[in-house]
Amino acid sequence: MKRISALVLLFTIISASLFHLKAQEIIKRKGYTLTFESNFAVLDPQLKKRMIETFFEVYPKLAKEYNPKTLKTVKFFVDTAYKGVAATANGVVTYSSIWMVKHPEDIDVVTHEVMHIVQDYGRSVGPGWLTEGIADYARYKFGVDNAGAKWTLPALKPEHTYKNSYRITARFFAWIEKNVKAGTIKAVDASLRDHSYKAEIWTKLTGKDLDTLWSDYIKSPEI
């Protein structure tokens, strides 16, 4: 009986190892390497392909625009145990298998997350709303299929502030780029990366502080 149990255990370990090897794929293009790994056995092959294609379409563009020194090797991991949407740390993007199944059209979650790799702020002196606002601004600007996901920048509402983060902040940034000074967000992003960011940078770049910019935005929010 013990011999049978040992054989079953050995078979389980070997099977798990073979699945792990099968689940991992390394793709190299345009000077970048993507390792794709998944413990989700029924991941749609077409969704996996779209995730990979999106990475190689947007990551080089984000690197060129914001940080040419960004990592050349990135890992994607589709994880059945992860309960959020996606998270990025140390060059690894973890995606929720549940989210990907429910929202296969949301392919530009890839764009948002790899922008976090490009940002590379480390122990930034900037606020969290700024980090996430820039990442969603990058998704707005470089996303491959925001329309397919019905992902848009929300219309301004009275309760909004620039500190709301994500899409609300991203829309404000899009307004600044169009109506105040192009290149502002790129300059702010660079200051966060080299840890020189101070709130005064907005005045230096645009002639107005954030609160004044927001007041102007409220008066005429078209983008």
Strand content: 5-15%
Query: How large is the radius of gyration?
Result: 21 Å
Strand order of the largest sheet: 1-2-3-5-4
Could you tell me the mean pLDDT? 92
N- to C-terminal distance? 72 Å
What does this protein look like?
This protein has 223 residues and is an alpha/beta fold. It contains nine helices and five strands. It has helices at residues 2-23, 45-66, 97-102, 109-119, 128-142, 166-179, 184-193, 201-206, 210-219, and strands at residues 25-29, 32-38, 73-79, 86-89, 92-96. A five-stranded mixed β-sheet has the order 1-2-3-5-4. Helix 2 packs parallel to helix 4, helix 4 (109-119) packs across helix 5 and helix 5 crosses helix 6. The longest helix has 22 residues, at 2-23. Residues 1-22 have low confidence and may be disordered.
Helix and strand topology:
Layout: H1 2-23, E1 25-29, E2 32-38, H2 45-66, E3 73-79, E4 86-89, E5 92-96, H3 97-102, H4 109-119, H5 128-142, H6 166-179, H7 184-193, H8 201-206, H9 210-219
Parallel strand pairs: 2-3, 3-5
Antiparallel strand pairs: 1-2, 4-5
Helix pairs in contact: 2-4, 4-5, 5-6
